[in-house]
Amino acid sequence: MVTELPECVFQITGEEAMVAFGRKLGNACIGGAVVFLDGDLGAGKTTISRGVLQSFGHQGAVKSPTYTLVEPYQFDGQTLYHFDLYRLADPEELEYIGIRDYFAESNALCLVEWPARGVGYLPTPDVKVAVTVSGEGRMLHCTAATERGQNIIKSLGG
Ligand code: ADP
Ligand code: MG
Predict the structure, then answer these.
(1) Interatomic CA distance for residues 18 and 114, integer angstroms
(2) Of ligand 1's atoms, which has the minimum distance to the CA of residue 47?
(3) Which of 22, 28, 121, 144 lies 20 to 30 Å from 7, alpha-carbon distance?
(4) Parallel, antiparallel, or unpaired for β 127-134 and 137-144?
(5) How many Cβ atoms from other residues are within 10 Å of residue 96's Cβ?
(6) pLDDT by residue (tens digit) across 3-45?
(7) Nearest Cα to Cα of residue 128 among 150, 155, 106
(8) Are 110 and 123 spatial neighbours (Cβ–Cβ below 8 Å)?
(9) At 50, which helix (H) or strand (E)?
(10) Among 47, 48, 53, 132, which is best to mutate for testing ligand 1, by the most ligand atoms less than 8 A from CB?
């Protein structure tokens, strides 16, 4: 049982700094984790995802898995699933793509944009990053709900 709920808040201005945060998050998630990225359209969720992917060696753009819901990546020693549930009309659709199998892989890193669209079909995340527009930049509120998540938050400097 998790008795402590660590959290940390970052104010990040600019796309480059946001990608750098994603790289740091990726490094903290080696070995697998479920990470929810919450926030409105344009908040910066995919920008963070790009940084996470870069930390595993992915270069260039990040394909938006909007229509397919999930884009899988296989890196040396790390499987990563990038979900974008924006287009999900009914969370039940997640059953059809075999959602349970993705999250059953405890060594995989699952990044989920728009997790609220999948409510009832997603597991408790290890870490939740809530992104809101704040001045010229973004406010990132990171919270952990598991022991694994607590360690990730600690690595982030929270
Ligand atoms: P989302 O996936 O949440 O819809 P994106 O990652 O596509 O959002 O980002 C939308 C826009 O916000 C991009 O133009 C990106 O450069 C910009 N952006 C992302 N993070 C920041 C930040 N910390 N400060 C300023 N602009 C940002
Ligand atoms: Mg996005």
Answers:
(1) 18
(2) 6
(3) 121
(4) antiparallel
(5) 8
(6) 556 899 999 999 999 999 999 999 999 999 999 999 999 999 9
(7) 150
(8) no
(9) helix 45-55
(10) 47
Say if ligand 1 is within 6 A of residue 18 CB. Answer: yes
Rg (CA), the chain: 14
Cβ pair 121, 94 in contact under 8 A: yes
> Do the Cβ atoms of 128 and 25 come closer than 8 Å?
no
Question: With a 6 A CB cut-off, is 51 part of the ligand 1 pocket?
Answer: no
Q: pLDDT tens digits for 103-141?
A: 999 899 999 999 999 999 999 999 999 999 999 999 999
What residues sit around ligand 2, an ion, with C-beta below 5 angstroms? Answer: 45-46
13 CB near ligand 1 (under 6 Å): yes
Chain position carrying tokens 């790289």: 23
What distance in Å separates the CA atoms of residue 12 and residue 18, rounded to the nearest whole number? Answer: 6
Mutual orientation of helices 15-28 and 147-156 as an angle, nearest 10°? 130
Q: Give the predicted TM-score (pTM) of the model.
A: 0.96
d(CA 116, CA 82): 15
* Cβ atoms 113, 46 nearer than 8 A: yes
